[in-house]
Fold:
Amino acid sequence: MKPGYYFQSDLLQLLLDNLLRDGYTCIGPQVRDGAIIFDRITSVAQLPHGVSDEQAPGSYSLNHSTTSKYFDWANGPQAIKPLLFAPREKLWQSAQSVDGQISFKTSEPDLKPMAVIGARACDIAAMKIQDQHFLQQQFVDPYYRARRENLLIIAVNCARPADTCFCHSTGDGPFVDDSVDSNGADIVLTELQDGFLIEAHSNQGKKILKGLPLHDSTKQHLEESESIKSGASKQNRQLPKFDIKSRLFNELNDEAWHAIATKCLSCGNCTSVCPTCFCHSENDVPELDGKTSSHYREWDSCFSQGHSYIHGITIRSETSQRYRQWLTHKFASWFDQYGRSGCVGCGRCITWCPVGIDVTESLAHFEERRRD
Amino acid sequence: MIDAPPNPYEPHEAIILERIQEGPNLFTLRLKLTDQKLQDAYEFEPGQFNMLYLYGVGEVAISIVSDPEDSHIIDHTIRVVGRVTKGMAKLKTGDRIGLRGPYGHGWPMTESKQKDVVIVTGGLGCAPVVSVINYIEQRREEFGRLNIVQGVKHTADFIWKDRYDKWRELPNTKVLLAADVGEALWPWHIGPVTTLFDQLGFDPENVSVMMCGPQGMMRVVCDHMLDKNVSASQLFLSMERNMQCAVGHCGHCQYGSMFICKDGPVFSYEKIRDLFETKGF
Structure:
């Protein structure tokens, strides 16, 4: 790690105050309903101080941490995705006049600057994928774009991955590895025993650093950071090593899909917590005034019955077909569309699956079958 | 601040200039964008589609059937199959709807010039290729032999008899019709559409086969054409999947490495073959 800057933990509130003073709405991790969720914060007292998370297939719980750190947990069900790609939002409104004319009015995207603190390396990697999807294709999404241009990201390197994490094997974590100006995080923090290492990854980030009384980091700080990184890189799960892309497409009719489907409830929890899933449906809601109708979009899932519905036919009526659609897209055809896998190893789909289906196991199944 | 780009999800108002009842559950809306500038600038290729919006109900993807050269009017032939199309069927001349498009990639018209053309449609799937036939009709000497094959399940499903009669009169053109189930007064073939294939006239080395309709039918046509030594790259299919945004964002029409709305809806068989043969994609 390069030498950088260091500040004492008690300066964290100053960072927050500076952001609030500069007009940012600050979003950060906090404990609610037994999970780490991201919502508005104004004080470091709201952060999950001394809290760690215990994650396993189909299970999530919070405990007292053995340290007094703010970020001694892996992740919660959501982080950046809902801030940029809203779970439900109005796209436009139509109005019909008495003589039958129809007019359309764009719903203006929100332009308020927002700062999110506590995003993880996997979240940054996922956001870059969503950037590709919503901003770098033939059509640009104006809503995503407006929020993205107004989002400042203060990422915190992971010190304590969960049992379900496998970002090390996807190459997306546990430390934020985006180079300066790579359009990812603006600031990256590493939480040490008594303070933080801080690095600016963008010009905006550099400006914010200037407002803080920082010290040069010492050799000890960097050593501590390196040891956190190597510790956090030792993860219990990993992606199988075989060529997943070609294997999945070669095994489209494999029995394994049915075996997984006997467990899968087709509930869509995995796609809801996945930081890269982008499916959404559109629907029109007539307003009570009888003169206008609002057109919304909301998150949808390829596990829903309606996702593949077309004039009387459900293309994927079987759960096995839906699971195959999800897995082959995420781990195979995603490469053709976005140049990489759609999985960043955050493990959320494993934790939040109500029956504990482990995606790394699902994939490994295709390897085992080849050895038969 | 940078100029905000136009909202790709927002429709424009269009007026129904004429409504034609084509069959029991099939109707055509002849539309014009009410903003004359937009109408003048509107261009499309045969095989592309628009998103049509019924006020207060929602949007639906419908292919364009009019001639691309006719800049005054945009025609859509619509089958009543769901909530939006059921509501649209009740619209009358002078009513307004929303329209955005055109979207996707259409039929390979330029690449098919100087080649024989075989058009195979099934069920009520003929609408997306009407613009192809019109296009060839307007430029008849630029194409080789034209074969138009339409299969229907029941004879009552057959629409546009006048058009087929007219197409039959075109030079160097064959029109073949078949119904799976024969009924009284059906003068054409009874049986699956493929049983007509021996009557087709085309050079396997120099042909474009364009098809549209149920996937099972298209699969049978592809198998037959491959047997006749037509290359998979010369077989073109118009694919249908759930579409909500039409701009490659909503994910419903994801098909392997493609999104049908923006990479299709017309694909060469070569490109989609692997997935096409697997149920549930």
Summary: DSSP finds 13 helices and 16 strands in chain A.
